Structures are given as structure tokens and as C-alpha cells.
Amino acid sequence: MQQRLCLYCDGASRGNPGPSGIGVLIVDSEGRTVERLGEFVGRRTNNQAEYEGLIRGLEHSSRLTDREVSCFMDSELVVRQLEREYEVRAPGLRKLFRRVEELEKRFGRVEYRHLPRDDDRMKLVDQLANQAIEGRTTRKAGLSGGEDRAS
What we know:
- By secondary structure, the chain is of the alpha/beta class.
- It has one domain (4-140): Ribonuclease H-like superfamily/Ribonuclease H (Nucleotidyltransferase, domain 5).
- Helices cover 36% and strands 38% of the residues.
- It has a seven-stranded mixed β-sheet with strand order 5-4-1-2-3-6-7.
- Strand 2 and strand 3 (33-44) form a beta hairpin.
- Helix 1 packs parallel to helix 3 (91-104).
- The relative contact order is 0.23.
């Protein structure tokens, strides 16, 4: 198992709510891509899609490590909610927030950091999320190659 992973995730919505997708990139401590994923998640608000991206990323990360995960997102609101700086008021987000709390228990340490949208890895996960919306599919690519499946 890996000691430490970096998880980059994003959610995108066409309309608020509207058709939505997520993008996930998992990188090991050497900077190598371990997994990347774009997935159509149905009709969501943008903030719900942001949480969905994090949830999917934590689920995938938990198969690779039980130690440390650093999560990077471009949603300042979600990061501040996860750091308990902001209260989660929207009922639709509270359920997703609680799911994140459950997933955090799978790791020794989880940290959250905000990154600007113009960061190269944030651009990639944004692209994966938008491609998933456009194609309404899941695209998964690991080190061993890619696999596509329709949703």
C-alpha cells in the first residue's frame, strides 16, 4: 500500500442544478498518476458535484492506502466546510458531508487544500468532469491502460 496520496478532484454542473460530472486524479508520493476518472453523476448542483468528486476520490484512494491523503479542490466553500470553518447549511450537502466524514475514518490522516482553477492538475480534473458531462459516460484510466463504459 502507498504511504501518501494526493487526490485532486472537481465537480462540474451545466446549470445549477443540471447535468453534472466529476473528475478525479490520484497521484502517488513520487508524483506518478495512479488513477484518473471522469464520471457523469446525473442532475446535481455544482456544490453537490464537488462533494461527489471528493467522495469518489476518497473511495478510490482507500483501495490504495489507509495512511495519508491530501485532497486538493478548487471549491473554496467545500474546503472551508470540510475544515469546519464554514457550517454546512444546505440539506442536500449535509448528507454528502457526512459521507465524507465516514470515508475519512478509512485513513490515518486526511487534509484539504484549496487550489486555484488555473493549477495544471485542477485544469485536468475539470476537463475530466466536463468530458463526462458531454459524453454522459465514465472514463477510467489507471497505469495499466484505460477502460470506458457507458453510464
